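Researcher: Structure prediction, please.
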Amino acid sequence: MLSAKSLFEEILDNDESFRLFCSIAASGESQGGWENGRIAALVPREQRELAPKIARHGADEDKHGRIFNALMKKRGLQPVAVPPDTDYTMLLERHGIGLAHEKLKGDQPLTVQDIVTYLAHSRVTEQRASEQMELLRKHFADHPDIGRAVRMISHDEDNHLAYCHEELLRFAYAGHGRAIQRVLRECALAEIRIYRDVSLAVMAHMGRILGWSRARATVLAAGIHAVYAYERLAGWRRMVSLRMPERRDALGGPAAAAPEFA
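Model: Predicted structure follows.
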């Protein structure tokens, strides 16, 4: 029976597919770390109290990238180049979601609207990350090789999502509510489309590595399209709602150190 657990077990058990999975994940996390680091450095003066939290967000993402690289190293594997059609973070940026990298590479301070855009983009993408890690935690929290990494990253992603909710609500109370809802909707509708395309690309690459039959590849592609159809119809709304989280000040304090993988 085809299930999320059996699919990931197949990817996990094969060195080449596992290497591709970890390489894609590590690249995306490292890119997120760079983006957050630059945003923290360019926060406008009137929002400087946010800079440590944004920097903590970036430090967490960098840590996740190191964890995925360590998982590969533990199995004697080296990272591979990330296929462009699987590069979720860069595809989002290319489609105008979030803050442009050209802006982040400069020295001009960001505006308050830029920070609202960053938080709205993060609220959408962290929803996806939190859900994906929750799925992995459900099936692999006690796995001898990846369980500890899954638990730590899942905890961090939940913190990131809580932080986005809390800060966006603060900006909404300060009069940015309409702008927040507009950006959230734009980001969510773009993200579900890009996530579909990246999922199809990842499954195509995995299928070639693992020798999947055309029938199996067709079933997986149909499932991805079905998820997109649901998200396009109504599922995207879960990405735009805001509620005060139970975890308050989730990114207060320093990031936890990455675990060692012997």
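Model: The radius of gyration is 18 Å.
Researcher: Thanks, that helps.
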